[in-house]
Write a structure and sequence with these properties.
Radius of gyration: 27 Å
CATH topology of the largest domain: Tetracycline Repressor, domain 2
Number of domains: 3
Number of helices: 13
Distance between the termini: 72 Å
CATH superfamily of the largest domain: Tetracycline Repressor, domain 2
């Protein structure tokens, strides 16, 4: 009887070591780069043990994520329910919803038995990993959580269309996830607080302030749009010039001549600058697109 319990304990210890090692590998290199052999080396077990407990890399990673994300999302939903009950209807704000989204993650990062110090990095990696497997996993298992929070965000930001809000949430939360995945939480918090003592509420208030600014940003003004168009126009000119120089260099090499540098220190005086609409008029180019000296497909064929 004692031997049976001991064997079960040993098997559970082995399984936990594999999961811990797989979690660290996922945080460090992401889903696509991690392999079963790397995990077995980190966990100090053989491949047969991984196959016995999980059968495949997909099942192993699924287990890694579920043991962390299931408790996290359960807390998130419970906290959102409590916030909606405390601040019904229009009293609920975007800050309340973001608090319900972020606060449980910060709390779990302080509980070694459930999350631990690397928990925030794991969350960051999950939501910034580009693997189709991870994206499909999140969609299958946590779509209801996303819909629940999206509905709450929509109610607190009624002036933003659902399509626009979806795009802004995606970009903003992906950015936060990438930052979380980039470093250890202690280093990030120290940089984020600039060395000032802050409690969790102050940290979350500062973080959500940045997120809300992104979510509620106004559409670009006409001067902002014109500035970006001017920069893109200059970029188009440089692209055309770079293609022309590469084509000329290939032609000179084919003729046995020494080509000129592809990226000279200064642009030739004959290349028009696009500093202002008046410059465009003076050059006779007008405001239309610049036609390349050679077509891109021709240049690509020459490069082959």
């Amino acid at each position: 009887m004692t031997t049976g319990r001991s064997n079960r304990g040993t098997a559970e210890d082995t399984k936990s070591r594999i999961l811990d090692a797989a979690e660290r590998m996922f945080i460090e290199v992401g889903y696509e780069a991690m392999s079963l052999r790397l995990v077995t080396s980190r966990a100090i077990v053989n491949l047969a043990a991984v196959n016995y407990h999980f059968r495949s890399k997909e099942v192993m990673v699924h287990t890694v994520l579920s043991r962390r994300l299931n408790p996290l999302n359960a807390r998130r939903l419970a906290l959102l329910d409590a916030c909606e009950a405390r601040w019904p209807g229009p009293e609920l704000t975007c800050e309340h919803v973001l608090g319900a989204l972020f606060s449980p993650a910060l709390q779990l990062a302080r509980e070694p038995a459930i999350g631990g110090p690397s928990f925030l990095r794991l969350i960051g990696r999950v939501y910034s990993d580009t693997s189709p497997f991870i994206s499909a996993y999140l969609f299958r298992h946590y779509a209801p959580v996303y819909r629940r929070f999206f509905s709450a965000f929509s109610r607190t930001l009624p002036e933003i269309s659902r399509a626009e809000l979806g795009m802004r949430l995606h970009l903003t939360l992906k950015t936060v996830a990438s930052v979380l995945a980039s470093d250890e939480p202690g280093n990030l918090l120290e940089a984020f607080t600039e060395g000032r003592p802050m409690n969790d509420a102050q940290v979350l208030a500062q973080l959500t302030g940045h997120v809300i600014a992104a979510l509620t940003a106004r559409a670009p003004s006409q001067p902002q749009l014109r500035a970006m168009q001017s920069v893109m126009h200059i970029s188009d000119e440089q692209q055309v010039e770079a293609i022309r120089r590469r084509v000329d260099a290939q032609a000179m090499l084919a003729a046995g001549e020494a080509p000129a540098p592809l990226w000279p220190g200064r642009r030739k005086a004959g290349i028009a600058e696009a500093n202002s609409p008046d410059d465009a008029k003076g050059s006779g180019r007008g405001a239309g697109p610049v036609e390349p000296a050679v077509r891109l497909d021709q240049w690509l064929r020459i490069r082959q």
